Description:
By secondary structure, the protein is of the alpha+beta class. The chain has helices spanning 3-12, 20-25, 85-94, 105-108; strands spanning 37-50, 56-64, 73-79, 116-124, 127-135.
Amino acid sequence: MSDSEEYEATNQSVDLSSFDDEFATAEAPEYDEVPDGKYQARIESVRLESSQKGDPMLKFDLEVLSGSQAGRHIFKNSVISQASLPYVKGDLKTLGLELAKFSELAGRLEELLDVSLEVTKRTRGDYTNVYFNRRLQLAVAPSGNNQQEQTPF
């Protein structure tokens, strides 16, 4: 039996016919982009990858924390080149990550996880830019203590 025959036989052994009626009338969800604007977001993941041209690139997945878009994701790709290096350095400074040498970045990406920040998403034509405005210090009660400390005034 050839690989393609084996593949076909394996996939035909699963019966999907009970879904035929529902599939015919099901509406595929539309995933609209988060609208342009300012958002409070948290860095859910950040990876160092390569762009299509082979340049190093930081890929950020940001989760919106509040407002009507809470729970949705904004993505930011920062291609690293000689021309973009000052902007990448500025983003890292905004996020609170100071590096002695840029080559340390790959080993320190984990420090960016769960950082909360204010971002601006702006679309012009086919291009979307995401700007890191400032790092946020969101008030979180210490674990095990749900009462907030009262400060006399």
